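G.,

No rush on this.
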Amino acid sequence: MASHVLLAACRPGEDALEDKDAPGGLFTSALIECLRRASLHDTSYVKLFEMLDIKPNRQHPQCEGINRDRLLFSVNRLRDGKTTFKVSKKKKGGKLYVSAGSIHGIAMGTQFSVRSPTQTLVLKAEEVGAFETVLEGSHHNITDAEAIVSHWHYPTLRVHSSTRHSSTHVTIVPASEPAEVALRENDYGKWELERFDPLILGYADRVVHFDADATRMRDILEAIANFNSYLYRSDGAAASFSGKVKVRLNRIKEIETQREYGPVGDDLLEVPVSSRSGVDVKEAVITDLEPRYGFTLENFSDVDLFPYLFYFDPSDYSVQVRPLPP
């Protein structure tokens, strides 16, 4: 099968059994459950089928097609643990186009490793759109290529520190210049991290104390830079959807006899908070934890969207993907 991925409930000669506890078949129930647990950014169709658990063992679901190793709902594959992107070429000019744009975190200067059956090239992003990136140079002889990001190009983290911890995404600046964090070692041999970002300070302590070897400081600061790059991402992709996508946070209640929930009351995302990026974000301060709450996304664009919900924890600079129903 050259164009599609076939997901079948059973082998030829077997029966697709019904699920006595839910509407639909055992295969459908198991597939939906796996989709709820799967991480779309690193799960292929084959990997999804490996997660299926159907009992009794009287039917064997099938996943067929040359594209079955693609990521779910995507034309991309995983290569060496990294997401690959499709590369195409226009007829004129020999320009290479990567099927990834600012919505994927691509920025001007992002570096790609482009691999074809005959050669591998390292090329930088020359033009970045919301969904597509043009690579530098002309390459008439490149065919059947795919690309992975070999170097993400996001803003550097400005740091006050008496010790040099500069790296690709970390820059030590003088005390007279603005910085996002300050790093210093106190009299007790512990490290202190002071944050100056007003958005971060609204949700975490200004100063954090921790034990770590000095050799790890560069990795820690790189992790903070990565956290900030995702937290403040608002570039061409956001502009492309300006006014076309709306997100609301409401209390929700169960709709009688439908086993579903619907929004009630006002949108709780009404308080604008100005961030260092110059882009207004919104927040909802929720003190009543008894009701249930839910997000509503309205898409008025002509592009199909697959939403993700991320939890950014400024206490340890971790980013977690919250599971969403398929």
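When you get to it, here's the other one too:
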Amino acid sequence: MNRMIHINVLLIVVWCVMFPNLASAQLRQNYYATTCPNVETIVRNVVNTKFKQTFVTVPATLRLFFHDCFVQGCDASVIISSSVRNKAEKDHPDNLSLAGDGFDTVIKAKAAVDAIPSCRNKVSCADILTMATRDVIALSGGPSYAVELGRLDGLSSTASSVNGKLPQANFNLNQLNSLFAANGLTQTDMIALSAAHSLGFSHCNKFSNRIYNFTRQNPVDPTLNKAYATQLQSMCPRNVDPRIAINMDPNTPRTFDNVYFKNLQQGKGLFTSDQVLFTDTRSKPTVNTWASNSAAFQNAFVTAMTKLGRVGVKTGRNGNIRRDCGAFN
């Protein structure tokens, strides 16, 4: 009998090692059909209201989702506030620029969901962030798509866990591919998800090296469109106020579209990690295809977002449903 138990435990361990993403199998569309059937409408209404108050809701929520999923998986751990004993993810230097409107969107949506007696403490913050992200993409002109739900909220959030997990503005293609591959995402997924930079803004210090001190021979990055570089220098002069931020997309900053890829063709990618998608011959064909085919890009983006939403899903004892998205139960 003991031998059989030992064998079964061994099989489970081997299974988990071979299939680390098995937890994502619990995700499905309409997960709350019986427990909270109107949850997607409730969340969408909150997002709509927030969107009318400020457009920042869109890039803030989208970026919050990315930063959450890339660190310990999609478990709303990035929303946890630091305590005296614990410095949480949100206070890591890479997360300090996350706009408050993203957090506020999730917190208000959670309150609206829990205001319905039958829904109270039934819907995770991780799932609410996933739904809200889909909704802000649609509100800004992007595709609306069915989301998989059923995540639990994470039980851990530490600033130290963020180290090396988020893409940096100066990454080359190998670094980008490596980081995304660690989350089960392909180069095609990475290029599609990079188009989130079609929205939002960046502080000048994230790209100032490209317009002032790229190299000794070329102070301005030669892959940068010259007119665009001059424009960036006027908006971000040396010693600029660090609070100053500019649009990521110089042409359609409030629309989620494939203009992002057209900008890359013209040397108007704001970050090195954007422009490299066009300058590197391995990724250039995809950029060219999506620059001329919006439908193909949107389909690829939905596929990539669905895959990203499956990363590090918490189940069973590894998670719970938080009563307050910003604090552990």
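The two ends are 39 Å apart (CA to CA). DSSP finds 13 helices and four strands in the chain.

Enjoy the weekend,
O.
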